[in-house]
From TrEMBL:
Superkingdom: Bacteria
Keywords from the UniProt entry: DNA-binding, Transcription, Transcription regulation
DNA-binding region: 29-48
Official protein name in the record: Transcriptional regulator, TetR family
PROSITE patterns from the UniProt entry: HTH_TETR_2
InterPro entries given in the database record: Homeodomain-like_sf, HTH-type_TetR-like_transc_reg, HTH_TetR, Repressor_TetR_C, Tet_transcr_reg_TetR-rel_C_sf
Domain HTH tetR-type: 6-66
One Pfam family of this chain: TetR_C_1
Cross-referenced Gene3D superfamilies: Homeodomain-like, Tetracycline Repressor, domain 2
GO biological process terms on file: negative regulation of DNA-templated transcription
Protein's organism: Nonomuraea gerenzanensis
GO MF: DNA-binding transcription factor activity; transcription cis-regulatory region binding
Alphabetized PANTHER family for the sequence: HTH-TYPE TRANSCRIPTIONAL REGULATOR BETI, HTH-TYPE TRANSCRIPTIONAL REGULATOR RUTR
Length: 203
């Protein structure tokens, strides 16, 4: 297998991310990225063998923004740092962010993020045998919240639509009608994280 060049990979990934942010993931192609960078499509294949490798590179590019910048702080602060960074990245790159759910993140950047969570959980006193399971719990919550938020699943219109379509079967929706609208998603996310921290501690 031929060795890929790496000198311009960061520039190429930045260009790919910009295209996806501006025009959506469907508009991302090797040709479009080559045009943005100012090289021929054939030259681009010297850095990424195909579009799949380019998408994997984008996953790594997003993951670089998630790992805690500083190793210090309590385990709660470090977990919260990863969680808030994940939500910020989802808001900044809503078209690309779902790739984190569907593509492998077994890259150096992905390993660093998961390792940071492992370290925090170990410091929290989670038994070693339970750490991988609790990491999956934390990651599933954070990724799910972030994707749901940017995709509009949490909107009040979505709740109202479900209530209308449910008809007589939506009695709980009608009972909770005064509580379905959230005015401050930052506060809800913070409260959810606090609940998660309380679950983690006595595991």
């Amino acid at each position: 297998m031929r060795k890929l060049k790496t000198s311009r990979q960061p520039e190429i990934l930045d260009a790919a991310l910009a295209i996806a942010d501006e025009r959506g993931l469907d508009a991302l192609s090797m040709r479009a990225v080559a045009e943005r960078v100012g090289v021929t499509p054939m030259a681009l294949y010297g850095y990424f063998r195909n579009k799949d490798e380019l998408l994997d590179g984008l996953v790594g590019r997003l993951l670089t923004e998630l790992a805690p910048a500083e190793p210090g702080g309590t385990w709660q602060e470090r977990l919260a740092s990863v969680a808030w960074a994940t939500r910020r990245v989802a808001r900044e790159h809503p078209s690309v962010f779902p790739l984190l759910l569907f593509r492998s993140s077994v890259t150096p950047d992905g390993v660093r993020v998961v390792d940071a969570i492992y370290q925090a959980l170990l410091e929290a006193g989670v038994p070693e045998a339970e750490v991988p399971r609790i990491e999956r719990l934390v990651s599933t919550f954070v990724l799910g919240f972030a994707v749901s938020e940017v995709n509009g699943r949490f909107s009040s219109a979505s709740n109202e639509s479900r209530a209308r379509r449910g008809g007589q079967d939506a009695s709980a929706h009608r009972r909770l009608a005064g509580h379905l609208t959230v005015d401050d998603w930052d506060a809800e996310f913070a409260a959810d994280l606090d609940d998660l921290m309380r679950i983690i501690r006595p595991v």
